[in-house]
Give the backbone structure.
Amino acid sequence: MSKTFALVDCNSFYASCEKLFRPDLKHSPVVVLSNNDGCVVARSPEAKALGIGMAVPFFQIQALARRYGVAVFSSNYALYADMSARVMSVLEDMAPAVEVYSIDEAFLDLTGVNHIHCLETFGQQMRQRVLRWTGIATGVGIAPTKTLAKLANHAAKQYPATGGVVDLSCPERQRRLLQRVPVSEVWGVGRRLTRQLQEQGVQTAADLAAMPPRLARQRFSVVLERTIRELNGESCLSLEQQPEVKQQIICSRSFGQRISQFEEMKQAVCTYAARAAEKLRQEGQFAKVVSVFIRTSPFRPGEPFYSNTATAELPIPDDDSRVIINRAVLLLRQIWRDDHLYMKAGIMLGDFHAPGCYQPELFDTPAVFPGSRELMQVLDHINQSGRGQVFFAGQGMRTGWAMKRERLSPSYTTRWEDIPCVR
């Protein structure tokens, strides 16, 4: 049986989440900013129509935002993650297999669905259910390969006449679309590869599909060969339902204001270490290696640039926040230098091991805390419940260094006091 894939992509996802609980902004331009309210990372269609570009520094569009009443928000990751989980839950109820590709995209296996439903009709049903149950608008691309499904999704969002759903099951429809799409829009073809292909006369997706696969492998890579085969309807990429086990975890942020005191830096490093340990437990892994890095800004004239990293191994792999925080603070002391204005710090955990799969050396002396597993479970349960927050003393009470988010919206779905009230 030939494969059938769908790619469901949320429209302007971050901006859509911000609009969802603000009906007064339904037809207004909305933009979402990156960490420390630096650059534009999401735009509503109305904001795009004003000519606001992606990754533009916010200070460059402030006058434009005031002139046209653009609603500007700091990134609300808690809200976006929760709304993403709700969208994916709806899709998992409608398809036999789902691969969550990113926070706002998912591939679905629709193989055999065409024997029961018209695929385009089924795509519309998915859009309507997601919109009705979550309030998030989506585009749906359907095709015999994942690469073609990506292009179909692009067409569904590019051409309003499609109604948000494009089915490329028909080879003739595939051919017509490939002729209209520039090669830069093909999944996996980045800027550098686009330039190389254009130099050889490959301008459209159809031109790429016409390239002999073996020639593409010789001149470029096996990855491009697979892409060409996928563009010609040969499925080379299967659905990945289980996410790959991470090889490392990094938690880092640029500071809202620069740090010159060790105690403030210690609070930041403890906070990042606690978050990294929480992510580690979510992965069901233990870490053997802990690294800490700090840096000043390389773009401040007249100020010395300083950047350093320290790394150490734990006696045995661990996932206890206390163990990781203690080691992180020791590493920080090794690389700290006074008389600098630091703009960023971070934690990296690596060399992961599954629980019970590490054989310690004869004289290893692990830092064992009684009841560690149970305590960490309680800690994570409280912090993920939305009812409160438990943190370590080293993280401090005052966080002037914390990421600047002056335009943060409420956490409508994950914090009790932020749940909207209907009167």
The mean pLDDT is 88. Residues 170-243 form a domain with the DNA polymerase; domain 1 fold (CATH 1.10.150.20).
